[in-house]
Specification:
With about 290 residues, the chain is α+β, with helices and mostly antiparallel strands. The protein has helices at about 15, 110-125, 200-210, 275-280; strands spanning about 20, 35-40, 45, 55, 65-75, 75-85, 95-100, 140, 145, 155, 160-170, 170-175, 190, 215-225, 230-245, 255-260. Bound molecules: zinc ion. Zinc ion binds near residues 130, 150 and 153.
């Protein structure tokens, strides 16, 4: 079972431990052996024997949707990521498994490495063409930045801040449901930070927009990188200060007050900060409900 403590969630350096080191200013030497995070659609390519990362020289022939990128070092060796085209085949010794954070058969380190690769490859894919002049930016050594040789503009990875909030009312907490979530699953109000807005102001606005409720005593608790494709989730608790529960039906299909004694059929996956915030408010939930 995953630890509910937010500091031990996947998609963090802590989840990778001392085996991982970020990329250094050195340029990669593409022909040298290393470890590989190969993605194909929503799958992560692992060795059939032992279900570990492929090791050695480039283990797949392509075609590649995004060619290999150095993302760091794993146990002292180059760690590269690449995305295959959906139709790409795999050698007999490799197989693809679901890289979803909902896949509880995959340990936190592999979920985190797949997320890191997804985020880096998404950025690399989106920075191929200079939006100012249509040129072809090249890598800036030692970073994930890109510099356009035609107009010299530089671009750096975009990470989008968002808030996620547990709204409390005494012993109860408000959970909401989006129509496209798995059957029976409830989660937390969340939304993107807008221009000229603090994280706390974003919490107050999102809660009002989505539920019609006013909140006060907005308290930061923890954060989680969320590589789907490139968010940073800032987790808060806030106290309900009144108002009438009126849903924004463009965003939500249901909302209700729950408690540790009265829970929805399905809680958010254990890999998510949403679940960690709920567990933190209502300790003892761990294991009470199984997730898909
Ligand atoms: Zn340019």
């Amino acid at each position: 079972m995953r630890q509910p403590d937010p500091t031990h969630l996947p998609f963090s350096l802590a989840a990778l431990g001392h085996d991982f080191a970020p990329a250094t200013p050195d340029r990669d030497s593409p022909g040298t052996p290393g470890c590989w995070i190969i993605l194909r659609e929503n799958g992560l390519v692992l060795c059939r024997d032992g279900l570990g990362l492929p090791d050695g020289v480039l283990p797949v022939a392509g075609p590649f949707a995004v060619p290999p990128v150095l993302v760091g070092f794993w146990q002292g060796r180059p760690l590269r990521a690449a995305r295959l085209e959906p139709e790409a085949g795999l050698p007999a010794g490799l197989m693809a498994v679901s890289a979803s954070y909902r896949n509880q058969a995959l340990d936190d380190r592999l979920i985190t490495l797949a997320g890191l690769a997804r985020q880096v490859l998404h950025w690399r894919d989106r920075s191929r063409i200079c939006p100012a002049c249509g040129g072809s930016p090249g890598e800036i050594a030692g970073s994930f930045g890109a510099r356009c040789p035609s107009c010299t503009r530089e671009y750096y990875p975009r990470i989008h801040p968002a808030v996620i909030v547990l709204i409390t009312r005494g012993e109860e907490f408000l959970l909401v449901r989006k129509a496209d979530w798995p059957a029976g699953q409830y989660g937390l109000v969340a939304g993107y930070v807008e221009f000229c807005e603090t994280l706390e102001e974003c919490v107050v606005r999102e809660v009002m927009e989505e539920t019609g409720l006013a909140v006060t005593d907005v308290r930061y608790l923890a954060s989680q990188s969320w590589p789907f494709p490139s968010q940073l989730m800032a987790g808060f608790a806030a106290t309900c200060a009144g108002g009438e529960l009126v849903l924004d039906t463009a965003e939500l299909e249901a909302a209700a007050w729950f408690s540790a004694e009265r829970l929805p059929p399905v809680l958010p996956p254990r890999a998510s900060i949403a679940r960690a915030l709920i567990d933190r408010f209502a300790p003892g939930l761990g294991g009470a409900i199984e997730n898909p």
